[in-house]
Structure formats: C-alpha cells, structure tokens
Amino acid sequence: MKNILLAICMFSCISLFGSAQETMEYFLPNDVDYDRNIPTPEEFFGQEIGEWHLNYEQILSYFHEIDRLSGRAIIQEYARSYENRPLIHMIFTSQENQKKLEELKNLHNSFSEVNSNLNADDVPLVVTLGYGVHGNESSATNSSVLTIYYLAAANSDKIDRLLNNTIILVDPSLNPDGFTRHSTWANMHQSYVPVGKSESRQFNEVWPGGRTNHYWFDLNRDYLLQVHPESRGRVAKFYEWKPNIVTDHHEMGANSTFFFQPGVPSRNNPLTPEKNYELTHEIAGYHAQFLDKIGSPYFSEEQYDDYYFGKGSSYPDVNGSVGILFEQAGFRGRTRNTINGKKTLAFAIRNQFTVTLSTLEAALNLKNELLSFQKECNVEALDLAGKDAVKAYLFGDEKDQMKTQLFIDLLNRHQIKVYTNQKDITKNGVLFKADQSFVVPVKQTQYRLLKSIFGKATTFTDSTFYDVSTWTFPFAYDIPYAEITALKDIQQSSVEIYSEEPEGKIVGGKSSLAYLFRWDEFYTPEALYAIQKAGLITKVATKGFTFDIEGKKESFTYGTILIPVSGQRLDENQIYSLVTSVAKKTGIDFYGMDTGLSPEGIDLGSGNFDVLKRPEVLMLVAGSTRSSDAGEIWHMFDQRFKIPICLTETGDLRSVNLSPYTTLIMPGGSYYELGNSDVQKIKSWVQDGGTLIAYKNAASWASKNEIGKTKFKKEIKNDTTLNFSYADRSKEYNIHSISGIILNAEMDITHPLCYGYSRSNLAFFKTNSQVAEKLDSKYAEPVKYTSEPYVSGYVSEKNIDRIKNAPVISVQSVGRGNLISFYENMTFRGFWLGTNKMFMNGVFFGDIIQ
C-alpha cells in the first residue's frame, strides 16, 4: 500500500510540472556515447533543462566547468557589455588541434586569400554558433548548454571527424544584459503549477522588456553600424576567424512553428553572391531532415529576408560566409498555450539544439564547398570592382575632423582599406583638401560591403522589407563624399591609414580675457557641458566675426562659444587648465584671445553673445513611450556627449518638481496614460520658460493637447484599385509603407537649431509616415524638406509628394518657453550622427530662440 501511495504521489508531482520537465534523453542524440566525466547540464544545475530559465551567471559557470574538464574546449572573452558582463566564445576542436589553434586559424584565413594555393582538404572549417541576440528569446541561450555538453562529452567516429576538421565557436548569449532582465522576469513570475495562459504576467514583461541591450537597442541591427561594444567585439572576432557558417538563433510569436533560411527570394540583397543562396538552400535540407526526425513542424522562404546587412544572419553573407537565421516559436515561460497546443520551453530548446546539430552535420559534409565559396567571393569581388564604373570614393570634412575619424574607424572595423588623399580635388562643387580628405578604392576584397556602405538604393524588386531599405553611411555621418570614375583624378597615399582621434589645442595660448571655440566639431556638446559643469559662464554668438590669431585670420560664425575669463568662479590658471583638458579630450581647438576688438563683425563684449544656461534634462520613459526612441536619446547623451539625463517614468510625472529642469524630452509615444493634470503641469512649465522637445509622434500628442499648433497631413490610404491575387493581397498594404528612407532637407544655418552646420543641406533618415503641415508663422521651421527630397530607399511617389517642402523641425513659442518638435529620428540606431547636433542645439540653445 505504501508503494502505491508513493507512486501516486510521484505521479501527482510529475503532473503538476507537466511535460515541461524533460530528462537529457529528450534532447540528446542516442547514436553516440557520452563521457561520464563531463557533467550533464541537468547534473550541474540540479534541475532539468526547461524547468527554470537559466540565468547568465549559471551559464557562464557551466562554460567554465567545461573549459576546466575538457581538452576539446577553451574560453576566450571578446568584449564586455555596458553592464560589464563578459561576452565569450567557447572554442571547440580536437585536443590535437587545440595545441596548434593559432596556426590553424592562420591557415584557415590564408586559404581564402586570392593568391592562395592551399588545398581545402588541409584547411579547417570554422563555424560560429550564436545564441540569443534578443535577450527575451530565451530558448536560444538556454540551448547553448546542450551544445557545449554534446561537443565536450560525445564520443563517436563522426564526432572525431567533426572536431578534427572543424573549429567551432559557441557564443552562449549575444546580449547578456537583456537576457539577464528576461530570465529574472520569467523566473520571478513562474508558478509551481504551470500556467500557460497568454494573459499571464510572466509572458508580458514590463517596459522595456528583455529584448534589447542596456540602452534599449536592438543588437541584431548593429553588425553594420558598430555602435555597441557587444557588436564591435563580435565583428572583430568575425574577421579574426572568418567563419564559413554563422548561425543566429531567435524566437518569434508563440503561435508560430520554426523557421530556417533561406528567406523570401524576392527580397535578397543584390550584393549577396548567388552561391550563398545555393549553399543556404543545401544546408536547409539538413535542418529539414533533423527536424523531421523529432516531428517538429517548420517553414522556409517566407516572412524573413536577408536584405539589410546589419543583422547577424546577413552580415556574414556579404563577407563570404553563410549566415543562417533560425526562428523558434517563443514560449517565454515553462509552459504556454498556443494554437498548436500546449508547448514548453523544453520543446523550444530541443528545436534550437536540433538545428545546431544539423548545422554541424552540413558543415562537415560541405566543408570543401564552403571553404571554396569564401575564396571565390574574394576573387569575384575584385572582378566586380574592375567592372564597376566607380573606381573609388572620396570623402572628408575639414570642419568636423572628429566625425570623419569616426567614419574611418567604422571602415577600419569592416576591414575596408582607406587611404589619404594627397591633392586638392573639387567634385560636385565640393573642395576635398589634400591630407584632410580620404580615398576608398573599390578594388578590394571588401568590394561588396563598401558598395553597400557608400551606395544608394533606388531600384527594388519588392516593396516589402523586414528592415530598412537603405543605409548610405556618408549621409548618416553628414560627410561630403564623391564618386571617382577615373583613378588619375586622385592621388592616394601608398600606405593604408587607420582612424586617429585628433587632439585639440589652445591656439593663441593662455588668455586673461576669453576663450572661443567653434560649434563645428561633433563633440562640441560634450565640451560645452564640461565647461558649464565647472560652473563657468558661457555665451553663444548669434552673429559672425573675425580675429587675427597667431598671424592668421580666423573666421567665427553663428554658434561660436565664448568663455570669458573675468567674473568666473575659477581663476585664470584654473580656466586655462580646464579648457586645455577639454580640448585634448574632445579634439576641439580653443582660441585664447588677447583682445576683444574684432577687425570684422561683432566684438567679444557685444550683446549678440547670448548667455547660456547649463542644461538640466528630464526625459519621460516607460508607459506608452517607445523604448527604442528613448534608448537612442539616452545613449546619445550618456555615451556620445557625457551629459547627464534624468529618466522618469510617465506615471511618476505628477510627483516630479519640474522647476529645476531646463528641458523636458518626450520621446515617441502615445502618452495615453497622462491625464489632464499632467498635461496642465507640462503646459505651465513650458509657459514659465521651459523647453519641451516633442520627438516624432510625441509632437502629435502635444498638438492634440493644445501645446503648439502643429497639424499633420493625412496618410495615404491603400489603393483599392490594385488587383493582386488573393495570395499576394498583403502587398497592397505595403506599397505606401515607409520602412527607412533617406531624404534631403534644407536649413537656415543662422537659426540656433542649425548652429554648427556649414552646408545648407542635410540628409535625414525617415522611418514613419507622419508628415507635418506647414505652420503659418515666420522663422518657425528652420529645417524643411526640399522640393526634390528623395535620396535613397523604397518610398512610393504619393508619399514623396506628401513630403516635399514639409517641415522637418519646428519651434513654437508657448508663453515664455518653446516647443521644439523633431518630426524625424535625430539619432537613428545611434549611428545617424549628422543630425545629433541639431537635437543638442535644442537642448543648449532652446531658450534663446525668439
């Protein structure tokens, strides 16, 4: 009787946990033996896989244990996240190969060189297995522990062949900060009795969720942009190892099944080699075979595409590798009710691990073909470059050397060769000065990638894009550039150059009168804030002037910053030490003045220098705000310009004293949670002299609540006269969508919002269909789209007509304060640097606009 009761009790416990708990036999192949000296994940963690979400520290501890016990594996750290979490690769190969790992890496890299005569049979293949770039796509990272156990413990002839011929880099979490947020949330809301209902709080993370990194960026868009340390480290490792296959494990909606590439054929990027798609198709057969064995449904060639090169599965494609996107239905909790029945985290983890095995099987069987493809890509790139009418790209901005150097740094990171231009050249009305401009010849093995970075996209075979349709980098950096069609027109240096941050200096030396610095350089907001933080009085010029300094005529224009020496809280020596330090740190030249009397224009004591306040900035977050908008702004202040910004939840606004703040930023969002008292509080604060920055669709909120008088154009309705087939009916809804385009605007560079710009045209990146109407007010719209605004990217003609001559930015008086509306993204994904200064002008100069 006792045994019967025990059995019933055990059965009840199993029933409570349901099918979420699975033993190792559920996950692992049974055609190999396993080394008992290597602990299984189940043994190491004291729980079954999928029972609880593993956290990042647990996963790292298991990786280090495998590193300690297995001669097949070593750990290498390649970066640190913003929250100082290590990002690692565990490198697997045979014990013999581990002894000569550096030699094998060099051999592998040498094989793909154009003139290499190495035999593919003698060269190791390299595979990178990447899990969980989106932190809340948890089955990916949780499956990584199965991968390393299998590679460390499995014993068979097939495993020996794999490890003898392949070097495998396992990256357990591409986004440890986001993964930590999600695993904490999922575990803290997991019940003892499984609850799979979609309305359960465990499936609905609080703002901003675990998908993004510390600054709420989607890291799966950053491989090309190289804004964040996770991506920078990862891409550096990519070029160090030049993997032949790179996997990218994700999750999608809970009611889906499983996706593996290839994606939608009509949305392939034309710069991707055709052979890449052939190999992707061939590898897909292995995924199908392995998923069929375990009875898991799947699909391919739908929904997802490989057009944008900034994603983890598409960046390898333009570099001679094969990137593979996997999308598993995301259950997020231990158990989830779906239209496909009750599903478990364990089931999702097994699918992710299964396609890891199919990838390794394909790698082993297609080794020589994959190696040869990488080499062929380099050979073909040089051939394509030779046929291109464009022979080189010329770029540079002498007035913003720091931004130019940041662009060179980006090109260096992508292994694109850059040279100094050694003679003055005028192209398209722009003078590119010798030694201050740079040349990128197209005839190099990175031809495809550099064409992607410099080229415009104006023709398309499909109107649907999973991501953006264009990303021309010189426009993003607001750096003049030109296409060179004859190499005789340029004179480039013989030695490749690398980025070198300029060090600012004090021209004219120590002053007892005043210091000046121009507002041209990228890091001027950082410089101005550092000086204001020290308690110094600062002023901004609203008119131009000249001075003779060290025997040279120096011209200063709108936006020049003046730092008087007298009347300050610091003495003359302390001020000189401060400006010297700021100059070196920011790369900005300061000018020490020995007279206040200018030969031309205003004098230093003129009333046309306006006194500036030190900004105190509050930004609303959470609630209905867009975390991506808020994160981009936060990152710009915090990382780019080292300016503090206070983040406050929208729900807490009523308890916040706004009077100490000079600027209130409302990132994109509907703000439906703000009540009448909140609206009145904001309105009163602006009327008392505050600067309200309404960003993107927050401008619509401001208008609806009678803060400003902005009106918006109606969006284009779907064209019901178009007659697609029923199966293609979704195309009707995408024709007028805007998924990311580049547009040209003209600006009044004498306006405070445009200080620091020397050219009247500026490129903006538009990601929404909102278009503002013109305001019936003088000087209210210093930046407008031109009458022919189109530059690059997919957009319908009807939308272009809506956009022509529309305002990009407006400023409206509200009592003694101002509403500044930025209708477009001013710091898109943290890499659209050209418009950053305009946003910061609103912060520093918003209160001097009349």
UniProtKB/TrEMBL annotation:
Gene Ontology molecular functions: metallocarboxypeptidase activity; zinc ion binding
InterPro entries to which the protein is assigned, alphabetical: Class_I_gatase-like, Peptidase_M14
One of the Pfam families matching this protein, by short name: Peptidase_M14
Domain called Peptidase M14: residue spans: 70-230
Keyword terms, alphabetized: Carboxypeptidase, Hydrolase, Protease, Signal
This protein's record includes keyword Protease: yes
Name of the featured protein: Zinc carboxypeptidase
Native organism: Maribellus comscasis
